[in-house]
Amino acid sequence: MNRKELAFRLKAARETVGLSLVEAAKRLGYPNYQTLSNIENGQREIKVSELANFARIYFCNLSDFLTAQSPRKEYAILWRNPPGDDALKKQTEREIFSLCEQYHMMEKLLGIKSGKGFMEVTRESVKTGHAINLLAKDTATMMGLGQRPSCALHKVLEQEYGVKILYYPLAYGSAASMVHDDMGKAVVINSNEVPWRQNYDLAHELFHLILWKVFTLEEMQDKLFFSDIERKADSFASMLLLPEDEIFREIDQIMENDKQLTYSDIVDVAIDFGVSAKALLYRLAFINFIEWEQANTLAKDEDLAEISRQKRTENLEPRRSDRFISLAVRCLRKGLISRGKFADLLKIDRSDIDDYIEGRGMMEAEGKTVEVMAS
User: Fold this and answer.
1) How far is the C-alpha of 18 from the C-alpha of 146, rounded, in Å?
2) Residues 239/136, Cβ–Cβ less than 8 Å
3) CA 175, CA 319: separation in Å to the nearest integer?
4) How far is CA 61 from the centre of its chain?
């Protein structure tokens, strides 16, 4: 391979993980960014030993730089309300992709296999509201989400289906999803959103993961078509998180005991199901429990909003992926990554590693081995 082609691949790999010239040069150990700039411009020869360092910093294999194939497979991130600024959108996508690569890297180090797949679906599966409702019910049953799906959805998606759920402070857009040939399924949730909104967004993005192979990329890039799919995804999220039978049972219990339904009751039920009061109101209208006009009025009612603010006692600290953190701790514990890499992955100071691990109730030491029976 000639120097120019190698230089092009090194630059592409750096941009993929979202590192600037200055930051990348610092991580690679060069005294200044100009050295790296000369390498990327093909003006400086690079040694094989240096390439190994590039591969480590950019989360690549040496073969990505030396073989005839492109160092990265194409990927597409499906946005919900994407950034209007194209440069910001590309930068955010590079950072998201880098997080997914780090996640996948730890899975490979630990020998973790990909999770199970979702049910087979077709366009008929989302053709009508009734079909979407059936899909939501079948999904909840197949995944074993129980009577309060929002309580189990995150863990089931991560642990059983291998979905990489990443909480990221999105400046624009509430969520995004991706299915990659190598890294599998991923969902990005805006860490700036409140927990009940994040639950809804996760269910919304699950719809896209399930339907990923049903619609082409060209179709999803069509604004009118995508707008229709987004409405279907909203319906799916509402039906999944607020099962009709459970909602009726909960409301009927309140009416049987109190003979009335108050604002406080509405908020209590919404909290119980892990959604916003607004989402519950529109679900009640959809199942003909209240009128649509009433739902619209209540959704804008300031008294209801104030009661909701007073009752919401959940920890509003930014969420992080527990599984991502757990994988990082396991890799550190087994000596698969250095303490420096651990700090880099979790964006903490190296001196804070021990306190961080202890604070999350995790052990850094492996301890003694345990003999197990052969299966």
Assistant:
1) 40
2) yes
3) 14
4) 25
What DSSP string describes 289-334? SS-HHHHHHHHT-HHHHHHHHHH--S--SPP--HHHHHHHHHHHHT
The candidate with the shortest Cα–Cα distance to 264, out of 200, 314, 310, is 310
Q: Which span out of 22-36, 131-145, 255-269, 361-375 was modeled with the highest average pLDDT?
A: 131-145
Pairing of strands 164-168, 184-190: parallel
The H or E element that residue 42 is part of is none
**Total-model pTM:** 0.77
Span 26-62, pLDDT tens digits: 988 999 999 999 999 988 888 877 888 888 777 667 7
DSSP letters, 179-202, are EETTTEEEEEEETTS-HHHHHHHH
Cβ(205)–Cβ(199) under 8 Å? Answer: no
At residue 347, the pLDDT reads 86
Contact in structure between 196 and 270 (CB atoms under 8 Å): yes
φ and ψ of 336, to 5 deg: -85, -25
Q: Do residues 110 and 216 touch, judged by C-beta distance below 8 A?
A: no
